[in-house]
Amino acid sequence: MLILGIDTSCDDTSASVVEDGIKTLSNIISSQNEIHKKYGGIVPELASRRHIEMIWPVIDEALIVAGVKLEQLSGIAVCHGPGLIGSLLVGCSFAKAICYSKKIPLVAVNHLEGHIFSLFLERPTFSFPFIAVIVSGGHSCIYRVERFGNYTEIGRTRDDAAGEAYDKVAKLLGLGYPGGPLIDKLAQRGNPKAINFPRAYLPESLDFSFSGIKTAVLNFLKSKRDSIDFSNSLSIEPGSQKNNQCQKTDIKSYISLEDIAASFQAAILDVIVKKTEWAVRKERIKRVVISGGVAANSELKKRIKELSAEKDIEIFIPSAHLCTDNAAMIAAAGYHHLCAGNIAGLDLNPKAFLPL
Ligand code: KG4
Ligand code: ZN
Hints:
This protein is 41% helix and 19% strand. By secondary structure, it is of the alpha/beta class. The strands form three sheets. A five-stranded mixed β-sheet has the order 3-2-1-4-5, with helices on both faces.
């Protein structure tokens, strides 16, 4: 069964052809990072306009790479939320138009369901039930997944998402956008114990809270402004680092960006790792998938490997390109909807807020 997946939920235009929910024949992603990076975050109007420009060529390429014609498709799976409404509208409208003109069944997929089902593209035999930890730019939540279509939310962020914290802190440090990969790289050369940023463990709860850490980094930067080495900043904000009068003479009182990045990252990852362990204990399920953009983090992978070995838990993190937004995960989840007969009407409307 061949499914064309489409994801335009945020700032990446993506299309993919997946066979039987597990075999990726193509997965094309057109990134908008270059457009948004000068603003330090996504500008929704620019994102939707770019989706309109890219949707056609990206879908064409996905079909060509897969060697598949529209007529051969069993269905088109489109992400209908949650996400930026203008961006979602582009993917949904395009999918509906193809389905109408070619008489192909339309399938609506929740973006979070896609992140969970990215698992089966690389581990088709992973068994239910399992815990799904989704840590991305828009979401940080934990689900108990009983089987396809049966998801119980057991934790969620009370404020910022993990990726949002990465992006906001990267902006404070003048690093650019998206912040996650930049901080990930910088942190590899830093000391995670240099600064003791707060960890919001929220005892007894599987919820997250990442807004405090961003404020802690901001307060730290304000208090140490004159003793931070910003030489690793990629883009420099006016009035702050650019005019930094940092004297490199007193090497002992000097704090590197690498140390700040590593210390910030340690605080975020400590919480994610701990909550994963708590979820396993609470639900008594020793199988976990961690996905979403932040799951692409190199240090998280190491930490999770340790947790897995230490506590004998089967934990799977998809490859980086399947952790961040992609349409293969939408096609993978769409396959199960199609098998279950969940066909969407051509009056399908996207929703910015769409709980799983
Ligand atoms: O899943 P995703 O592509 O989009 C959403 O659904 O939000 O996640 C994007 C987020 C961004 O906040 C980005 O900074 C973060 O994932 N991210 C990372 C890494 N790669 C992307 N965070 C930490 N380490 C990374 N290597
Ligand atoms: Zn996502």
